[in-house]
Amino acid sequence: MLKHKLKLAASAMVIAAAALGATAPAKAQSEDGKYKIYLSLSYSGNAWQSEAANIVKALAATPPYKDSVELIEVISGTDPQAQISAYESMIEDGADGIVSFPISSSALNRTIRRGCDEGVLFFMYDATVTESCAYNVSYLSSGFGENSAQALVNELGGKGKIFLSRGVPGNSVDQRHTDGAMHIFNQYPGIEVVAEYYSYWDDRTTQQETAQALAAHPDVDGIWAQAGEYGAIQALLDAGDRLVPMTGENSAGFRLGLADPAMQEKGLRGVSAGSPPAQSGYAFKLMMEILSGKRELKPMNIEYPLPWVPAADVKLCEGDSYENGCNVFPASRVPSSFVSEVLNTELLPEINVDSALDGTPVEGATIQPLPEAVPEASNLPGINCDDCEAPATLYKLTKVEATVQP
Amino acid sequence: MSNETATLSQTGDTRKAARIKRETVSTIAIAIICVLLLYLSRFISPALGSWSQVETVLILGSFLVVVAFGQGLVILTGGLDLSIPALITLGGVLSTAAVGAGNPDAWYLLPAALLACGFVGFLSAVGVVWLRVPPFIMTMATSIIVASAALGITKGTPRGYAPEAAVALMKSHILGLPSPIVFVICFVFLGWLLQERSPLGRYLYAIGTNPEASRIAGVPVTAMQIFPYVISAMCAGFAGFMLVGYSSGATLRMGDDYLLPSIAAVVIGGSSILGGQGSFLGTVGGAFLLTILGTMISAIGLEFGLRTIIEGTIILIALLLLREELFNRIRSIRRKA
Amino acid sequence: MTDLTQTATGTDAQPPQGRLAGQTFARVLQGGLIIVILYFALYALYFYQQPRALSAGSIAALMNNTVPLALAAAGQTFVIISRGFDLSVASVISVCNVVMAVYPLDGPGGAVMSVLMCVAIGGSVGAVNGFLVAYLRLQSIAATLATMIICQGVALVILNAPGGRVADWLSYELTDQLFKTIPISGLFVLAVVLGWLYLRRTSFGISLYAIGADEHAASLSGINVRKVRFFTFVSAGVLYGLAGFMLSAQTATGNPTSGTPLLLLSFAAVALGGTSLSGGKGSLFASVMGAATLMLLQKVLFSSGVSSFYTGVFQGCVLVIAVVFSGLIEKLGERAAKL
């Protein structure tokens, strides 16, 4: 019996080793003249992450990149050590460029520096790193926190009890958004933050945490939410079938809710802003333009514009892309967790909703050149730069004006 | 055969006398702590400490109660189930997989999902029982595999909508009470029957205490060692189904919040991590204690770090109050008096 | 179980040389030979796929990446041998990491002070755990769960978002190589392993195994079970502090949740190394090798081009296969020892 088990285990090990070894060993540098591009993700289990990855895949499959780019996707999970190890492997493997969602703003710096020294281009999207030789493409500096907070204050007329639905604890993106929002809320003595909770940018967690907060404060007047905001709507409906003014990010469920007369009647008003997955496509295209010599750009922090769609501006799309100013797809086309800001007619005309859902390129599309100007992002110490000063106008309002004075 | 059964039940009876005293006492102690916490929460916010908070706690705690039942059975037989988060996600993903806008949901969805989860649990059990892989490692490996498989199948974004049955379970009302509360009451009763009052339950306690003696006494040890893993996996899958009904969709991290709380609920409830000791009612008490604590903590207006410290401290205090040595001391004091 | 029947029917006349050979074989296996073989086999596979794997820079990078987990697994081994679980590893590492990033101390003198700080933090949390488990008789999994939550809160209070900066001297020197070949971080691990090999023969080491194997028998033989268990947790805490120290040197920054991934990984590393999770047997060296194998596996999977989504399936399967394999070899060793 023992011998039998031993044989079983031994043969299993041999098979596993053979399977791993039989896969082609990594080539040092592509002999066929293709650019070796790695798409390095950390966490990947939600709609935002998969949409961002899918549009990069779709762009890499669109001519002329279809024949000149070899795109390899690597998922490392939430452990920074794993992403460090992945970056090192990519550098060893002779990558030309790495477009990545970094799990930490600073833990990866040493490895990135080593890669830059070997001539690898690093393009980070949405989340940023403080290493100066990497390019950061992010909307973080565009002030989601402060703009959405001011919009909420305007809706509430400067006073009321609010919830703060945050992201992941110990994360710099969440911290920047919240700092911006609190900067505005602190100016209004009539605004009281009665509950603050972490929703991990997840619909279900938002729903659960909001339900708990409602148990303690059923008379809430408004909610400031990061991603996962649709869960807050569900919690409100469960608790008392009434809604309140809310600002959130751009899930299809939230956007459609803002435009839905039934929900408006229950009290839903607000703005849909938040993080656009389209940043990954913009980063990829920028990187490819530099690699293929069409553009010269030194490493810098690049700002992606903040999406801003108040309830009145929500427009349903008929086709497969954002034409005629439409900005949300109907429920029959996408699930409620679909992150709407994944298409951009100006920067990414080559993709459509299927590219976001499945990574399929659009028939007959070719890569279009990006606009000449590349907007620079302001300094965010500890987020996109080290040893730098934040500008005096850090929390400047760009999308709304204060209609109520403190 | 009757001889052996007599021996088994005789051993069972002697243990039972001691068991009733200790485990009932600890369950009552947990209930007292729960009520105390509910009362204290009034000081945090005027809306707390009321029936609406109790209602929220009962609904939010229902998921943990279901999951802790399965975890409790596994721990009772001396194992540990780390695959619960992945199986919750699997249950949720499978429940929504076939339900789409043009696809009315079919009656076989839930049984199919439960069967799939049960099969995964069976595989874990095979690893533990026959390949002698430590339960910690086997269930951790199963968890990694299932989570990865779920990620691959959904390509990162679970689609599909919640089946009507799930929504009906979580969002409707029965006899004036929210249906999850009625469900919890039924589930606790059935779980208690299974663990404390059925031959199956007795076998599990026996194996947890002494597998060899049980084998000699005629308990079908192998089957009884496999059973808890299958049940735990199915409970986790069902919890996924419930969560899908509650939030109208599945997400890939929906199970993450339930691993450590499931272990904590079982341990606070008086079960020994080494097996053979514990009661389901205690576990239920532990689950509600943690849920009440969660609602209280989220209402405190301090920064997150401080709130976490407070939460950990209260759990520590609860553990200190509920520990076995204290009961023995109290019992010996009573005897002296 | 089967041991009883075996002894009962065992042969009486045994060739002395065979028995000695068998026992040596068993002892060597217990020391982690299997995992070492597995590690080198995996490394050979890695080299086959990626020729740059044997360069000094590659080896140093891999070692720097591995050392925090190796030290965490080393500390966890202490507790597991004594038949317990220690969940506080995650937050001790996080606390040490944020303290080092928020209060950086410059230069070599500062580095020494930082090490002492981390060791002190880890040791005191270990002391609290030890007190709760040994003297107040709480279950180790429950007590360390509570301390883990509390320490996580402390880490978030000290630093609520990634930031801060670890002292430059530390992060440059400790990730560098001696004479351009030997990674300095590796020397730390070597020191810990040597310390363990010495400790194992002292009365503390022997008592550690004894209380893990059979607590009752150990106390009857005169071992002060409570004291030994207390110092087990303190030793584990000290090693977690060191792990946090090395993690800070590698990432050069603070992150209040940096220790969380290491929780389950530390248990996986210990089990992979062949240490039994029910106590009484095992080896710190084997756990360190287990940690190294886990980190190496990431590299091998990457080079194999395993599809990104399904990496987990491979990792889980390899984990199970390796544990089964090492368990079987160990049984073989036990059988050999009885021949």
User: Total number of β-strand segments of chain B?
Assistant: 2
**Category by helix and strand content of chain B:** mainly alpha
Radius of gyration of chain C: 21 Å
- Tally the helices of chain B: 14
Description:
The complex is a heterotrimer of chains A (406), B (337) and C (339). Chain A has 406 residues and is of the alpha/beta class. Chain A has helices at 2-22, 47-60, 65-68, 80-92, 109-117, 144-156, 172-185, 203-216, 229-240, 252-259, 261-266, 279-291, 353-358, and strands spanning 35-41, 69-75, 97-100, 121-125, 135-138, 160-166, 191-198, 222-225, 246-248, 270-272, 301-303, 309-310. Chain A is globular, with a radius of gyration of 23 Å. Chain B is an all-alpha fold and 337 residues long. Chain B is globular. Chain B has a two-stranded antiparallel ribbon with strand order 1-2. The relative contact order of chain B is 0.19. In chain C, β1 and β2 form a beta hairpin. Chains A and C meet through α1, β2, α4, α5 and α7 of A and α3, α4, α14 and α15 of C.
Question: SSE layout and pairings?
Answer:
The complex is a heterotrimer of chains A (406), B (337) and C (339).
Chain A: H1 2-22, E1 35-41, H2 47-60, H3 65-68, E2 69-75, H4 80-92, E3 97-100, H5 109-117, E4 121-125, E5 135-138, H6 144-156, E6 160-166, H7 172-185, E7 191-198, H8 203-216, E8 222-225, H9 229-240, E9 246-248, H10 252-259, H11 261-266, E10 270-272, H12 279-291, E11 301-303, E12 309-310, H13 353-358
Parallel strand pairs in A: 1-2, 1-3, 3-4, 4-5, 5-11, 6-7, 6-8, 8-9, 9-10
Antiparallel strand pairs in A: 10-12
Chain B: H1 2-44, H2 51-76, H3 84-97, H4 109-129, H5 135-154, H6 164-171, E1 173-174, E2 177-178, H7 179-197, H8 199-209, H9 211-216, H10 221-247, H11 259-268, H12 280-299, H13 304-321, H14 324-336
Antiparallel strand pairs in B: 1-2
Chain C: H1 2-9, H2 16-30, H3 33-49, H4 56-81, H5 89-102, H6 107-135, H7 140-158, H8 168-173, E1 177-178, E2 182-183, H9 184-199, H10 203-213, H11 215-220, H12 225-251, H13 262-272, H14 284-303, H15 311-338
Helix pairs in contact in C: 2-15, 3-14, 4-9, 4-12, 4-13, 4-14, 5-6, 5-7, 5-12, 6-7, 6-12, 10-12, 13-14
